[in-house]
Amino acid sequence: MAKRILTGDRPTGPLHLGHYVGSLQNRVKLQHEYDTYLLIADVQALTDNFEHPERLEANIVQVALDYLAVGIDPNRTKIVIQSMVPEITELTTYFMNLVTVATLERNPTVKEEIKQRNFTRGVPVGFWSYPISQAADITIFKADLVPVGEDQLPMIEQAREIVRRFNGLYAPVLIEPQPRLGAVARLPGTDGGAKMSKSLNNCIYLGDSSEQVRKRVMSMYTDPNRIRPTDPGRVEGNPVFTYHDVFNPNKAEVEELKQRYRAGTVGDVEVKEKLFHALEQILGPIREERNRYAGQPEMVREVLVEGTRQGREVANETMRQVRDAMGINYRFDPQVIRLTNMGFSANRDHNWLIVNSLSGAEEDNIAVCSRCGLTRSAHEGKVRVFRLKRNSFHQIDSFMHEGMVVVDMRITKSNPCQPPKKPINFEEIKNLATSQSDQLL
Ligand code: TRP
Fold it and tell me: Are 147 and 43 part of one and the same domain?
C-alpha cells in the first residue's frame, strides 16, 4: 500500500508564499508517490477565531482554491474538511489523557503564538491544547509523512509521543509520523520579521493581483542603514535578497545584484523591480489557475465533498481499530446493531442497509431498510427523502454479492416495519425500494 501523507492548513484566509515554499510545493511533488490527504483544519482555526465562525466557510473555499491553483490534483489528493470528520474530535479526547499539562506548556510554537495573539481573557484551553487535536488529525489518517514548515515540527514531535504512548498502552495500531520540511523551512515576512504570517500582516498571497504584489515588494523592508543607493548595503538578513535567493531562478542576476548592492552601485528600486518580475513568473500562472477554479464553484464544492467522503472512510476505519484497541467496543443496547464499515445500522423501526452510493454532492449514502425496503438518504445527520436512483442499484447488488448480508437483526414487537415473507434478496429490495421511494419518512 502506498505510504500516506497528511498535512493541512487553518482556513483563516488565503495562503501565502510562506506556505508555498514551506509545504505546498512539497505536497504537489509528493502527491504522485504518496496517498495524500490535505486537511482544511476549520476546527483548529476556531481555536483562535471562535468569535467568528461565520468566516470559516468562505475561507475554506479560499484555501481549496489555493491548493488547486498550485497544482494539487483532486483526482489524486483528497482535500478533507476537518469538521466534517467528527471522529477526529473523538480521537482528540482519548489523546488528552496521554499528554501532560507540562508537556503542552513546553511547546515552543504554541508559546510563541500565545505571545503573538493577545488573548485578552487568557489563553483558551482549545488553543493551548491544539497540538493534541493536531496529533489526532495526523494519526487518524495513519500518515507516514507530514510536509510542513519549521514551526510545525513541535506538533509532529507531540504526535509521535502520543503514538508511542497509545501503541504501548493499548495496541500498536497508530503510525509514528515523520516531518518533511520544504525548500525554505521559514520564509521571512516582507517586513523582515522572522516569519510570513497573516496575523503579522507581512504576506504576499498566492491570489494577490499583480498590483498588490508590486506594492508589497516595493514597500519591502531592506537594509535600514542604507539611505542612498550609493551607500554600501547589507545583503545578509535583507529579506529582499532572501526572496531573490528563493524565488529568482536567474542565479547570475542575483549574484550581480548582491555585488552591486554591497558596493553601493544599485538602488533598492531596481533590486525590487527584478524581484517583482521573478515573483510574477511564479505567481502569474498560479493566479490564472486560481481564477479559473474560482469560476467553477460547483466543481470546487464537489472536490471538497468527495475528498471529505474518502477521508472520513479512512478515519472511520482507524477509529474502529482505536476503539477495539482500547476496548471501547461494547454494546449495551440490543437494538443497536453495530454500524460497521460495511454499513448496517438499525433503529427502533427499521434495519438500515447503508450503501454508499451517490457521488452527488449531498446524497452521501442511501439507506435501504432490509426488511421493508423503505429508503432514506442520510447526509450529515439530516434525513431527507429522495428518489432512489436507478443507477445506484448495482451498488446494492455488489454489496450483497460480497456477502455483506444483514446479520443479527434483533427486531422487537414494537418494530412496525413488516418483514418480508421470504428471505431477503436483492431483487426484492430493489422492487420494494422502487415502489416506496417517494414515501416520506
Ligand atoms: N497547525 C497547522 C498550521 O497552523 C495546520 C494543521 C492542522 C496541520 N492540522 C494539521 C498541519 C495536521 C499538519 C498536519 O499551519
Answer: yes
- Tell the residue number behind the cell numbers 454532492, with chain if given: 361
Does one domain contain both 39 and 97? yes
Q: Which atom from ligand 1 is nearest to the alpha carbon of 134?
A: 9
Residue whose C-alpha cell is 434525513 = 383
Q: Which of 19, 30, 129, 148 to mutate to test the pocket of ligand 1 (most atoms within 8 A of CB)?
A: 148
Q: In sequence order, what are the beta bridge partners of 352?
A: 345, 369
Chain segment 154-202, per-residue pLDDT in tens: 999 999 999 999 999 999 999 999 999 988 888 999 999 989 988 889 9
Q: What is the CATH number of the domain that holds 51?
A: 3.40.50.620
Boundaries of domain holding 374 = 330-440
Residue with CA closest to ligand 1 atom 14: 7
| Mutational test site, ligand 1, from 39, 89, 130, 203, max ligand atoms within 8 Å of CB | 39
pLDDT in tens, 327-362: 998 755 322 222 222 345 556 566 666 544 333 333
